[in-house]
Structure formats: C-alpha cells, structure tokens
Amino acid sequence: MSKLPEKHKFVDLSDYGRPIAKVIASSLMNTTFTPIHVTIGFIISGLIAVFFIIQGYYWLAAFFLILKSVLDAADGELARIKQKPSYTGRYFDSIADIILNALIFISIWYITDTSIWICLLAFLGLQLQGTLYNFYYVILRNKFAGDTTSRVFENITPIGLKGEKQIHVNILFGLYKMLYGPFDKTIYALDRNAEKGRVLPNWLMTSVSTLGLGFQLLIIAAMLVSGLKAIILPFFLAYTAMVFVFIGIRKSFF
Questions:
Q1: Total domain count for the chain?
Q2: How far lies 223's CA from each of 53, 100, 104, 117, 122, in Å?
C-alpha cells in the first residue's frame, strides 16, 4: 500500500532508500522476520556507524549511515506488505531514531573542535527540521487515506492494533511524547493552521523533504567522506533557518 495516491506523490529526497527497502521487505514477506526485527537491524547499523565515526573510518561510517536509512524504510514496507501496522513499531522506530541522532552528533562533536553548545543546538535544529517534514507529510497522508499509525497530533495514547499489547503501546507512547513532544509543540505553535490550509504542492513537499532524516544522514555521510566533518554541526544549525522559510511559504501561499 502506497502512502499517497498517485496525484499527490512527490519526489521525496529523503526517501532514496525506498527501492532497496522494498526489495528487502519483499524478501522477508514469507519469513518469520517482523518489522521490529528490521528496526533492530537499523539500530545496529546506526551504532556501527557511530563506532566508525569515532574510529575515523569515514567511508565505512557513511556506508552504515546509508544502510541505516534504507532499513529505516524497510521496516515500514514490511509492515505494509504483511498488513501488520502497529503503534509499537511506529513509536519504537521514532525513539530509536532520536537516540541514534543524538549519538551520531555526539560522535561528530567528539572528533572535531566544535563547541558542545553548537552540538546541542544543531541536534535540536536537526530534530526540528525532521519534525516539520513529518508534520506536513502526515497531514498529506491523513487527508488522502494513507497509513493510520501516524497521526497529525500525538496527544492521546492510541488503542493498540490487532496483535500488539496495549502495555507496549503505552510505554513506547510515553517515551515518544517525552522525546518528541517539545518539537511537536514547537512546530504546531509555529504553524498551527497547516492542517486547515490548501494541499501543499508536490514541488514544495519535495523541497521540504530535504529536512527529512534520510536526506540528513546522506548529507552527514557525504561531508564525512569529503573531509568536511568540522562543518557538519554548524551546517545543521544554520540549515534550521529553512524551517522558518518553509513555514513562511506555507502561510503566505497555501
């Protein structure tokens, strides 16, 4: 099941790993592997990337960052083709992402002379960027019968779907709210009428997709292998300005 109908599909620059992810998911469709297993796989890949960043093996780090991005798409694909969506998987995926993002940024701070404050602000900016991308994307998916495990407003603990335990949903949702709540509230405060606005055109969603985690990891990988490790954190801090640019465009025209 595609996330969006054909008319509203856009070139998602953050989703470059989707073709390979579909192959991986298809190969696992008739196995006992679950989406959670694939999520654990991308956690392992992300941790290996962190290790190689610290050790200075930047090509290997780049490979595992991209692999992490591919597997991050594959767990959702597997859930769709097995027709087993779950809130457990949705929140586990997001919690793993934010923890890995923090570890990646800490490892980059460790190998450079960047201020710890720039590292912290860059991390907050990274998460704010991803939150805006997800916010606009989930609005589109909700409007056009996309998957229902992602919600525009994550305020109330959802009722677990068939096959998952409510206690797991409760715990993971609580962790999700603690980690992502401040970013969700910030983006909502900045653009509280986004859901009521016109459907965002494909060109704008493609532009906003540069804020997505997959594209962020691609930029980090490219900078590592290009000898630009020292500017990775300052770049993401500065690129946070695009959050306000895109919100300004949305408010002015859509």
A1: 1
A2: 12, 18, 13, 20, 15
Mean pLDDT by 10 residues, the chain (254 residues): 69 94 93 93 97 98 97 91 87 96 98 96 98 92 64 76 88 94 94 90 96 97 97 98 97 93
Query: How remote is the C-alpha of 27 from its chain's centroid?
Result: 23
Sign of CA dihedral 119, 122, 124, 130: negative
85 belongs to a structural domain: yes
Q: Which residue has the tokens 């087993």?
A: 84
What's the pTM value of the predicted model, to 2 decimals? 0.92
The amino acid at residue 152 is V
CATH code, domain with 50 = 1.20.120.1760
What sections of the chain are H helices per DSSP? Answer: 18-28, 35-55, 58-81, 87-111, 116-143, 166-190, 202-208, 213-225, 232-239, 241-253
Residue among 208, 203, 210 at smallest CA distance from 235: 210
Instruction: Decide: residue 241, CB within 10 A, 0-12 exposed, 13-18 middle, 19+ buried.
Output: exposed
Domain of 162 in residue numbering reads as 6-253
